[in-house]
Write a structure and sequence with these properties.
The chain is mainly alpha-helical and about 45 residues long. It has 2 helices and no strands. Helix 1 runs antiparallel to helix 2.
Length: about 45
């Protein structure tokens, strides 16, 4: 799925390329937040 998104971005207009770039940034930020919370231990309630 991600490779198809990247491949489509390479063949799109400037607006499409920027939109896909924003999706990638959001995806990376979301993964970073998940990893941060797991490492920090916020998901565990005692």
């Amino acid at each position: 799925m991600l490779s198809e998104l990247f491949h489509s971005a390479m063949h799109s207009s400037a607006q499409g390329f920027v939109g896909v770039g924003i999706i990638w940034i959001y995806f990376i930020a979301m993964l970073g937040a998940i990893v941060y919370r797991v490492v920090k231990g916020d998901h565990v309630h005692h």
